[in-house]
Amino acid sequence: MAAPPPPAHWSHFEQEQARDVRALVQQVTGLGEEEPGGRFQAALSFTSSNFRFHRFLDVSSHKVERTVEGIYEKLIIHSELGKAVSWKRLTEKFLNLPLPNTEKTKTDAHYAILSLLLCLSDSPSNTNYVEKPREKEVEKEEEFNWGKYLMEGEEIYFGPDMNSPDWSEDSEEEEDTQPLSREDSGIQVDRTPQEEQDQNKKMVPNVTWKVGEPDARSWLEQHVAPQYWTGRAPRFSHSLHLHSNLAAVWEQHLYSSDPLYMPEERTLVTETHVIRETLWLLSGVKKLFIFQLNEGKVTVRNDIIVTHLTHNCLRSVLEQIAAYGQVVFRLQKFIDEVMGHSSENLTHGALSTPKKATGAPFRTYQAFMWSLYKYFISFKEELTEIEKSIINKDKTITLSIVIDKLLPRLAQLKVLHKVFSTGVAEVPPDTPNVLRASHLLNTLYKAILEYDSVGEASEQTVSLLFSLWVETVRPYLQTVDEWIVHGNLFDPAKEFIIQRNKNVPVNHRDFWYATYTLYSVSEKTENEEKMSDNASASSGSDQAPSSRQHTMVSFLKPVLKQIIMAGKSMQLLKNLQCKDGSPQQTASRDAERKSLYTLFLESVQSRLRHGEESVSDIITEQQATKQSLIKMQSIAERHLELDVVHDPLLAINFARLYLEQSDFHEKFTGGDVCVDRSSESVTCQTFELTLRSCLYPHIDKQYLECCGNLMQTLKKDYRLVEYLQAMRNFFLLEAGDTMYDFYTSIFDKIREKETWQNVSFLNVQLQEAVGQRYPEDSSRLSISFESVDTAKKKLPVHTLDGLTLSYKVPWPVDIVISLECQKIYNQVFLLLLQIKWAKYSLDVLRFDELVSAAEKPQLKEGPLLQQERVPQFGPHTELIKQQIHRMFLLRVKLMHFVNSLHNYIMTRILHSTGLEFQHQVEEAKDLDQLIKIHYRYLSTIHDRCLLREKVSFVKEAIMKVLNLVLMFTERWQAGLGAWKMESIEKMESDFKNCHMFLVTVLNKAVCRGSFPHLESLAVSLMAGMEQS
Amino acid sequence: MASNAANLNAVRETMDVLFEISRILNTGLDMETLSICVRLCEQGINPEALSSVIKELRKATEALKFFYFIFEVWEPELSTIYKAAENMTS
């Protein structure tokens, strides 16, 4: 239903008023004209009647002004100054502005309007009117226009909901129906040309620009980081100060000075961006904007610029960081690779790990990786701290501050990288693990020594490297520990320098020699040498050639022998004890035991702690030092005065010198933390000293323990000493009576020209002799005879050659008394038999035998030849007597010789050497030493029995004499008839020659003093000479 | 044309100022109502009468809104409520 048309008689003015009244009712009540129930009409009529018929006076301008003034005062009193000022200004302004239909100012209409508002006012002092919309409006206008200008053409749709003008809160209902506030349209009309606006509207019909929108945008811009990495970063505002625009100034300069200079397009970043990217780079982030990672190389982006630095300057700073970033990346890669979650594209050789794929992990690298990892964790913590402080914006943080702060870390990174590249990265790919492990450990060790020798300057580095080394060495020490404590060398990745040969069982005679292979790595040539364990273990470190200075893991070198001995002993011992059986005991003992590594750590810690304590003491010590210095000075001065020298400086220096010497010892023991590094000799050795005091004693202790155990077991349970004694008893004829029974039976047979070479006869004789006194040995002893080549056999002295005594030595004693030893024993045994034989043959000769033999043929031939011989009888008997006498004499001479020799060998050599040997056996610490002692003993008696090749001419001479003796006795027994004067003379001269020769040679040797033991032999032989 | 535009600007400024004054005084008028009021005042309507009318109309509207709400909710008892409302208004 349309509004009823106004009556025709109404004037234009009346019509307009009626329309306005309708609008007012509509506006205030919200009712439509077509409202049912006639409520709108009622309201309209109510309004009209009230307008026409009312009891109010006309508006008085004075009254209104007074009221306005009153409100101003009221606001002042309520201390709402801002409101009061706005109020006053606004009312005055209003009164001076024209109204829509009134051109003039301060008219009644103005006052009427003010009066209306005053009547409608509802406690103005209680409302929150804090904003100043006029001023704000102006700003908004500008902002809005800028936003519109910049975003022109952007198709961003902000719905009408975004509209929230501050001053429309009170009329939300209206607001909803009115998407465009008049304010906005006003501004658009003000600032934008009409056409452009139209164009805009045509292009982007949906866009409706709201006052609130730039607000949201600026909020976003403030709170979201600009995407500098996208390349089209917004130009953020920054200070216009000269210093913060150095880049631009420099650019300008270059542009103006160099005609060919072409400015490049560069991305502007802030220093904060650079710092944060630096931190990220160092913490191992790979995807960065400023730093780029290309095939393992970290490079700096070229088109980066900050406002306050020139391009080159920034670049040079960043390139340094990039180098460190690369180090971080490289180490990180290594960590990833060892951890096993690396990608498989291992192009470089350091870790091609074919072995890793096949099984056991390479524990040394793992340990090294772990130590690096721990280092990086702490490093990252530090970086995060810095980043946090950047985020908090509490402190000023510049790139140079950050670098300064990180400087020690960066230096450490450098060292780490150096160690890493020499120790890990540069190792050729197909190197065996043992080489890699020892190379890595050696590199670390050498690095520590190197930095340690620099002194105080690199204390940090040393401690870092030391912690790395301590971590890395862990698997090695664990292997050692397992080996020397439990006796099994557990090394699945074959990284330990000693490796077990699988094919030799423990209870084998060769176990001691052939079980382990020591990998000796020569640092200089980098080639691997397999040295037989036998050689290295028995030769020891003292005989190692100097060219192999840096072989194997150098830190273990001083105790390598102990480790090997302890390991082998332990394994042997375990095997021996397995038979006895007491595994529970050992298991319980093992639970309480600390591992070698733990012990090592503990002692290192206590050592370092000791160092710290003394550091705290140093301060107090210093005062004491000063006092004592003064004292010493006075003493020194007095001393100098004695020599009439007056030099106070000299005195002070002397005093200092004394002091240094006096507390030198304290410093020396103080460890590598607090050691006064003024003395070079101290510095160079501190690390080694640490090892010596912290690691080696534990190994030594274990070595002594298990080797001692082994020796004890061998001596006690396996009767090692008894076996050694048995060897001496039977081979060296110390059991004189027993062996006498044995050999005399053989000699008798030989004398009677019966066959004695029968093995069963020999064995029966041996058993008979031994069985009586040494029943337990008789079963082990046996004798065999091998026929030697006949050329030698011609000489009677070699008849006995081929006799071999053998003694079955049970395991494990056969490790000491090996077959080789028995061979030497047999050689001595044979010599002894020969001497004994000669002696025995001479001993059993009887004078009457010769005499009766001389007479017998005369008796037989007597009757036949009596008359012929009678004239000859006198001289003949003379001759025979002479012959007999000479024979007697010769016999005695020979006896003297043989007895001297016999005495020399039996008492001077065998007995005394045997005593020495027994003594040494008692003191032997380990099995190896025992073996060595035994060998030395054998070689000594071998030497002293003149069995060595070098002195074979002496032996030859002796053999000649012995041969002579045997021939002589043969002749003697054959009787005088077989004798001719010439042969006796020949024997005499032969003997004389040999005797002479021997005496000369021995005398020379004795005079030279090289063989003191020969002295007695030489003297006794000499005595024989003088008589002749 | 130009003077028109200038005039328009001036009027707009007047209205803005007036609206601010209205806000300070917490009159509760919106821009539209305010402009109607300005026109009416210019036509010589007594401002006090106008203000009393506006106040009355507001009161009535509030009451009406309240009853309207009840009418919507309790439709079956519409007549009784309506009567009560009439009683109250009378």
UniProtKB/TrEMBL annotation, chain A:
Regions of compositional bias (Acidic residues) in chain numbering: 167-177
Listed transmembrane segments: none
Residue ranges of domain Gamma tubulin complex component C-terminal in the record: 720-1021
Residue ranges annotated for the Gamma tubulin complex component protein N-terminal domain, each copy included: 275-622
Compartment(s) where it occurs, according to its Swiss-Prot or TrEMBL record: Cytoplasm, Cytoskeleton, Microtubule organizing center, Centrosome
Biological processes annotated in GO: cytoplasmic microtubule organization; meiotic cell cycle; microtubule nucleation; mitotic cell cycle; spindle assembly
Stretch list, region Disordered: 160-204, 527-548
Family annotation (Pfam families): GCP_C_terminal (PF04130), GCP_N_terminal (PF17681)
Bias (Basic and acidic residues): 192-201
Compositional bias ranges of the Low complexity kind: 535-547
This protein's GO CC annotations: centrosome; gamma-tubulin complex; microtubule; spindle pole
Functional summary from the UniProt entry: Component of the gamma-tubulin ring complex (gTuRC) which mediates microtubule nucleation. The gTuRC regulates the minus-end nucleation of alpha-beta tubulin heterodimers that grow into microtubule protafilaments, a critical step in centrosome duplication and spindle formation.
Similarity section: Belongs to the TUBGCP family.
Subunit relationships: Component of the gamma-tubulin ring complex (gTuRC) consisting of TUBGCP2, TUBGCP3, TUBGCP4, TUBGCP5 and TUBGCP6 and gamma-tubulin TUBG1 or TUBG2. TUBGCP2, TUBGCP3, TUBGCP4, TUBGCP5 and TUBGCP6 assemble in a 5:5:2:1:1 stoichiometry; each is associated with a gamma-tubulin, thereby arranging 14 gamma-tubulins in a helical manner. Gamma-tubulin at the first position is blocked by TUBGCP3 at the last position, allowing 13 protafilaments to grow into a microtubule.
Full protein name: Gamma-tubulin complex component
From TrEMBL, chain B:
Biological-process GO terms, alphabetical: gamma-tubulin complex localization; microtubule nucleation by interphase microtubule organizing center; mitotic spindle assembly
InterPro entries xref list: MZT1
Keywords, comma-separated and alphabetical: Cytoplasm, Cytoskeleton
Taxonomy, superkingdom: Eukaryota
Coiled coil (residue ranges): none
Any Gene Ontology CC annotation: spindle
Subcellular location: Cytoplasm, Cytoskeleton, Microtubule organizing center
Family: Belongs to the MOZART1 family.
Name of the protein: Mitotic-spindle organizing protein 1 isoform X1
Originating species: Alligator sinensis (Chinese alligator)
Lineage: Eukaryota, Metazoa, Chordata, Craniata, Vertebrata
UniProt gene name: MZT1
